[in-house]
Amino acid sequence: MSASKAVTKREGQQPAPSGAALPALSADMVATESDEELVARGAALVREHARVEHQPAIILRSLAVVLVELRTRCTTSDGEMDLLGRSQRYRDEARRIYAGAGIAPDSEDRVQAAVRWHIGNHIRERFDVDTLRQHGLLVDGPRKRVERGRKARAALVTAASAERDLSAAPAKKATKKARGKAADAATATAPPVDETAGARVKLTADHLRFGQALATIAGQMRPDVIDNEMTPGQAAKLDDLLAETQTALAALRRHTKKRRSATS
Question: Percentage of the chain with pLDDT > 90?
Answer without folding.
Answer: 33
